[in-house]
Structure formats: C-alpha cells, structure tokens
Amino acid sequence: MPIKVEVRDGNVGRSMMQLKRTLIREGLFKEIKKRKFHCKPSLAKRLKREAAAKQRNKDLKREIRAALK
Fold it and tell me: What pLDDT does residue 69 have?
C-alpha cells in the first residue's frame, strides 16, 4: 500500500517528520531491522524469550515502585 505525504507551503522538513511517524506507526522500521540479518529459529526464540523476561522485570519494578509510594 502506498504511503502519501503532502508537502504544504514548501515545508519539506515537516513532511519528512510526518512520513517518519507514519512509517513507525505502520511498523516498517521494525520489519526492516528484522529482515536485515537472518537468524536461526532457535536464536530468534531465545531472543524473544529474553526480551519478554526483560519486559516482565521492567513491569514488575514499576509495580513495586508504585506500591512503595
């Protein structure tokens, strides 16, 4: 699907920021990073598991800080 961004009043910088926001929202940057290098399925599973554990720890730390306040 094509992504269109209007350039208003010759303001290219603002249009570039809008394009970047749109691409981030669509998940295009994540997809490009994911496809940049091939990794074996076992490595992908391990990385996904480690990222999930890191996120759980971060959430738990936030809950503990909120409970102590």
Answer: 86
